[in-house]
Design a protein that fits this description.
about 375 residues, alpha/beta, Rossmann fold, six-stranded parallel sheet, about 15% strand
């Protein structure tokens, strides 16, 4: 079997790590994956060992130069559809796996080719766009993967055709790569030394490309409140500066300066060593205002890092509040700060108990091997 996995963005993030990990494991079942990425930047995609294609202007709605982008999208639409159809035929693709709620072009190409479509609905969109894209998804897709029951019930149950095509598949985490037992004090010291974190300081971090959806401004505001209580603490913001969110980046720099945190908040840019970064943290924070079921939460759980996360999307299906982490209200920097401070003041035994429960939950529900088997079953059922 051959799968064409289509992701709208070539900037590496959670969907790429998940898809790459699943693709590696699918090879154990003689299922090969070819990737197609929407080309938003010139940077290379770190996908080793798999064939992939890059294609410009396959996303119709973008915040940067929206009118120009929309014109280019429609001008190139026939060409891009023909090109994807050629990729499907020349690679003998059996199933097209569309990743992202607005990834319409590969779906149209697959429909013209009469190739089965699995649509991975791992994000959300503004209300106006839902009226256009959800009916199209319901018509074109043979199966729709939703990353959490809460998401399905909250947003989609009113659309009967959509609901009847749903399959609930959580994202998975590679417990071979994200394994706390193989990252010890050496990796922790290396990361802290790289960012000049003094010995004895706490390190609190968040991971996600710089976007308003990730709520970095609330993380920074919470950093100020934490710093007022505990002086020996630094804050790490891991993620790429996006060309499409330059105004938000500038806003964050101004906020850091206003709060006097220039020496305390560290922007790392893109990092490929996420397990090592997580191993160096005392607390991981997800400050997002919008999410589906973020991979990074599972990665932090697998790495046995205490978690504070906003209760958005299906995060509450990942983190059991008070047992495997702490959930807080979104857009509330005070709540984030109080939860982080609670961790830093907890007895070590209580934290270890929570981390142990979190790791067991990863093994039972969110291991990449289990998710791969579910995805394999969906492909086989379609064929």
């Amino acid at each position: 079997m051959k799968i064409l996995n289509c992701i709208l963005d070539n900037r590496f993030g959670g969907p790429h790590r998940r898809s790459y990990g699943v693709a590696q494991r699918l090879r154990n079942y003689d299922i090969e994956t070819v990737f197609l990425f929407g080309q938003k930047t010139k940077e290379a995609v770190p996908i080793d060992g798999f064939e992939y294609f890059l294609m410009k202007h396959i996303q119709c709605v973008r915040r940067r130069n929206p009118i120009f982008n929309l014109l280019m999208f429609f001008c190139l639409l026939p060409y891009n559809i023909l090109r994807i159809r050629k990729i499907i035929r020349s690679n003998a693709i059996d199933v097209v796996h569309v990743d992202g709620s607005m990834n319409i072009v590969p779906a149209l190409a697959a429909a013209f080719n009469r190739t089965p479509i699995v649509w991975h609905y791992n994000d959300d969109m503004p209300a106006l766009l839902k009226k256009v894209f959800r009916p199209l998804t319901a018509i074109l897709a043979d199966k729709i993967i939703i990353q959490g029951k809460k998401i399905g019930e909250q947003y989609l149950k009113h659309n009967t055709k959509f609901w009847n095509k749903m399959a609930f598949v959580y994202p998975g985490v590679d417990t071979n790569e994200f394994n706390a037992d193989i990252f010890g004090s050496r990796e922790k010291k290396r990361v802290r030394a790289e960012f000049d974190v003094p010995q004895g300081y706490y390190l609190v971090g968040t991971i996600g490309n710089i976007s308003s959806f990730k709520g970095h401004s609330y993380f920074i505001k919470s950093a100020k409140k934490i710093k007022d209580e505990i002086k020996d603490v630094k804050f790490l913001i891991v993620g790429s500066k996006l060309d499409t969110a330059s105004a938000y980046w500038n806003k964050l720099q101004e906020l850091v300066s206003e709060l006097g945190l220039e020496d305390d908040v560290i922007f790392t840019g893109f990092r490929s060593d996420i397990p090592e970064i997580l191993s160096a943290l005392d607390v991981f924070v997800l400050s997002s205002v919008r999410e589906a079921c973020p991979n990074v939460v599972l990665e932090a759980m697998a790495m046995r890092v205490p978690i504070v996360a906003t209760d958005v999307g299906a995060v509450s299906e990942q983190v059991i509040n008070g047992q495997t982490g702490i959930l807080v209200q979104a857009r509330n920097s005070t709540a984030i700060a109080n939860a982080v401070l609670a961790y830093l003041r907890k007895p070590k035994e209580e934290i270890e108990e929570m981390l142990s429960k979190a790791q067991k939950r990863i093994d039972s529900t969110f291991s990449l091997s289990k998710i791969t088997e579910q995805q394999k079953g969906i492909y086989e059922a379609l064929l």
